[in-house]
Amino acid sequence: MTNLLKTPASWPRPLLGRASAADPTDLDAAVKAGAFEGLRKAVRTLAPVAVVAEIKAAGLRGRGGAGFLTADKWQLAAATPADRRYVVANGYGADPAARTDPVLLERAPYTVIEGVAIAAWAIGAENAIIAVRATETEAIRRLEAALGAAEEAGFIGADVLDSGRQLTIEVRPVQGAYMLGEETVLLKALEGKRGQPEQRPPYPAERGLFGRPTVVQNVQTLALVAWILREGAAAFRAIGSPDAPGTILVHVRGAGGAGIAEIPLGTPLRAILELVAGKTRGKAEGGPGAPPKALLVGGPSGGILPADLLDTPYTFADLRAAGAHVGSGSIVATAADADVVELAELLTRFCAGEACGKTIPCRIGTRRLEEIAVRINAGTPRPTDADLLADLSADIVASALCDHERLATLPMSSVMRYFRPELDAKLQPATERAAGRQRVAVADGEPAH
Ligand SMILES: Cc1cc2nc3c(=O)[nH]c(=O)nc-3n(C[C@H](O)[C@H](O)[C@H](O)COP(=O)(O)O)c2cc1C
Ligand code: SF4
Questions:
Q1: For residue 82, which of 36, 126, 278, 301 sits 20 to 30 Å off, Cα-Cα?
Q2: pLDDT attached to residue 277
Q3: Which ligand is nearest to the CA of 403?
Q4: 271-278, long-range: CB within 8 Å, 24+ apart, which pairs?
Q5: Which of 399, 402, 410 to mutate to test the pocket of ligand 2 (most atoms within 8 A of CB)?
């Protein structure tokens, strides 16, 4: 069971606030706490376009990592002519070290189901799938129990809330590698095929599952949809930051502990870290609560940020500007004496190993990045390695077919950007050797006087 971190009472909790620890599958208790009010409002009082307008007014961005505007996808899917449309809830959780999505599914299954039903109503879908990592058996069990109860009560099924519209929601356990979380790979897997990322456009919202318009949305995004419909777009906008309203789940690991917390977007990294480590100022060097040397933000393809960026607000745009990303919602504080160049090597190896191989600059380029990192850490760097790192990273980013390619360069790029003295110290043997060779060459070539 993953630890839920205590957050300040003043922090709103649209995602986990109504989660019942006693029995999250108890429909009566969930309804008493407000479950399906948003769906009822949508179906009884709002046309599908008005639902999309409400999500647009809320400024909701997807929680699956990239922060894309949710309403834009819905608009596209609803406007694309088709005989059927789908909603796919992405609960795969590609980074198994960040258990934010399974924890949401375990603790608030009805909130996710309600969000799926609202999305289906908005785009005109009669079929939806909630994809969950197959090893998350408790999340799957609770979702299935909740779906059964919701159908029996008429919230989903043959006649959703007597609207004349039907909605079938299926839980689909899926298992695969890291790339399975990427939406086009996930869609292929749901079609029963082996998948690699597809060039976009066309986006899944136009041509997705079985070639039909498909809204793929992270499970947190859908849970927030339920809250927005119930409480209103203005209430949602009052939480978080202007460009990224609302809350998000993060999985934090630091010297003082670990756990999952629901935080308003825009919360500074320092305040997030303090949820596990106590105050990060004024503690003895190296002790619990002491500032870490660096933070790995975004999962295995995340950015390594130095401690002097602890005041960076946790938003999609601010993290991107700092050279990290929201990604899986993972935030890891390193030890005060961590070797960040070794950490970057480890992460680059993971990213290279997970590259699906479809795009040559990614497949070969990430392996080359890894080899350079290995040389540098082994004390056998080449004089050209610093330039090669920069050029290769830029080339890989420029030829990206899917986001993995761009993100795979982040660990080494952040070392180049923020930990240059440390990197240079490891590059030095090569520079010195080169200088030594040059001196010998000059000495050898000197004309005798
Ligand atoms: C390598 C890779 C792994 C991903 N893994 C996940 C994942 O586990 N869960 C998820 O929701 N999105 C993941 N994404 C993002 C999805 O492709 C997609 O953008 C997201 O599911 C859309 O939902 P959202 O708009 O609600 O964020 C991943 C992307 C990449 C490139
Ligand atoms: S960029 Fe990398 S992970 Fe993405 S499709 Fe190409 S090889 Fe696969």
A1: 36
A2: 79
A3: 1
A4: 272/314, 272/331, 273/310, 273/331, 273/333, 275/5, 275/6, 275/7, 276/5, 276/252, 276/333, 277/333
A5: 402
Inter-residue contact 328 to 298 (CB < 8 Å):
yes
What span, in angstroms and rounded, lies between the C-alpha atoms of 113 and 104?
11
Pull the structure tokens for residue 225. Answer: 């949809």
Task: Return the best residue to mutate from 183, 194, 363, 370 for the ligand 2 pocket (most ligand atoms within 8 A of CB).
Answer: 363
Give residue 445's pLDDT. 43
Closest residue by Cα to atom 4, ligand 2, is: 402
CATH of domain 27-237: 3.40.50.11540
Architecture of the 340-435 domain: Up-down Bundle (1.20)
Q: In this structure, which residue's CA is closest to atom 10 in ligand 1? A: 64
What confidence score (pLDDT) does residue 279 get?
A: 62
Q: Which pLDDT does position 348 carry in this prediction?
A: 98
The predicted structure's pLDDT at residue 191: 97
Q: Report which protein residue has its CA nearest ligand 1's atom 20.
A: 64
Ligand 2 centroid to 198 CA: how many Å?
Answer: 9
Domain residues of the chain, as ranges? Answer: 27-237, 247-333, 340-435
Which atom of ligand 1 has the smallest separation from the CA of 402? 31
Distance, CA of 60 to CA of 218 (rounded, Å): 12
Over the chain (449 residues), the average pLDDT of each successive run of 10 is 90 88 92 97 97 98 96 98 98 95 97 98 98 97 98 98 97 96 97 91 97 98 98 98 97 89 98 84 52 94 97 98 97 95 98 93 94 97 95 91 92 97 89 62 43
Q: Note the CATH architecture for domain 247-333.
A: Roll (3.10)
Q: How high is the pLDDT of residue 284?
A: 47
Name every protein residue with a CB atom under 6 angstroms from any ligand 2 atom. 179, 196-197, 355-359, 362-363, 400-402, 404-405
Amino acid of residue 429 = P
pLDDT the model gives residue 20 = 62
User: Is the fold of 27-237 the same as that of 340-435?
Assistant: no
Choice from 179, 362, 403, 406 to test ligand 2 binding pocket (greatest atom count within 8 A of CB)? 362
